Amino acid sequence: MVSDPRYDWKRFWYPKGGTCKLDFAGDLDDPESSYAHITNPEVVSFETISRTPCLILLGEPGSGKSTAMEQTLEEIKRQGKPALKFGLRGFDSGSELSNEIFGNSVFQDWLHSTYHLNLFLDSLDEGLLSLSVLSDILSRKLKNFPCKRLNLRLTCRTADWRGTLEENLRQIWSKDDVEVYELAPLRRVDVEEAAGKNHLHSEAFLREIQAREAVPLAIQPLTLKFLLGIYREDKQFTSTRRELYYKGCRNFCDENNLYRREAGKKGKLDIDKRMMIAGRIAAVIIFANRVAIWTGPGKAPSKNYIAIQELCGIETLDEREFSVTETAIEEVLKITSLFFSYGDGHNSFCFTHQTYAEFLAAWYLAQHPMTLAQRMSLLQHPADPDRKLVPQLHEVAAWLASLVPDALREIVETDPDVILHSDIATADQENCAVLVESLLRLHNEEKLLYESRSWLYQRLKDKNLVPQIQPYTTDISKSEDARYVAIDRIIANEKLARTNQLQSSRLSR
Question: pTM surpassing 0.85?
């Protein structure tokens, strides 16, 4: 696979719960502009917060957390400072995690010395172990080390971060030595750079983004990558995440390696079959809680892998069956841009990004004739009487809600906060109203944890705002959290109205 261009983006961060303002076009209001101290005073570069001993770095799926962490790690190594980085995704037991990280020779050398060590732990939310188990292991282990000499950088998706680990880390370091920051979206200059390095006309690309109301997709690296690829082919693109990911994954299922094209190594499967096989792999990886596919001889090296033989079977496409053989699976793993070689050898493969796997797993469920109960049984915790979703499957559930209307209505009843991350803006007025009512009701019943989400509420289309919200703003018997949600919804509606007014004014000029 031809590698993507390397971008010289400077990424910025803001305190969790703080303010990150976008300009009238929807891009990040540039923190390096002459008015930044007024427009975005809380948004800072990593250098500004780099002296904090313990940093929790949050971001939305595809926002570039891991890449930003890798850039920071490279800079630290260039300075000659000792550093270690581990992805938390592959550990399926506490002993394995402890041995790999805290038993590492570099870590042990630091432990018996007097210098500082930078420890990077990536993708807390993607672990095979549950978030609560990972958090407990890290808390118990870290408190036994001289953390005054340890700089910890930990990444996690914003929606999956919970305060228990944060409080434990504050006890290990100190209250002032632990800070939580969220990754800000891209600036207009970053999108322009990406277009230029992909040999596209930057202004034409940006005009199409504005015309299609796709700015929210362009200011996140992962969806920007899809936009760039689709624009190269069609000179236009869709404005919904669901359609964008579908088309992007289809493009990735084509032969993208120039040298393999020239050598005639294009494989034997068409794009539709590759897409279906990729969805099959994603569903197994996600719902069986595996990390990678093992293609080598014999048994897979650990239970974290799924052996290629276990993925074989029969699929149906356009009412015709076709065989999913080892050869077909290897073609999808080795030719498409959805996978990369995982680990040290050449016998294991992993999705290039977790979000690809989550979308394709949901898409695969939507392609097959299943009842709603069958689909939901894969997403809901079997022992929960309230039918709550498994936390690690929230993103899959959000995608499924975008693809299957019945699933959206089911999930709204139990986990409406998850639906906020779906393509809810494309839903009808009735579903948006039901979502808001469920959010208010469950917060009032103290079944949801309150977090300010006014920026997500801007995606809702709801003409009946006042009669729905008013009882929660005027009735003091309602819970404090429910009233906060109502206020956030009003603020979001006012921000959306102002943004639309500014954009209309700009277009009229």
Answer: no
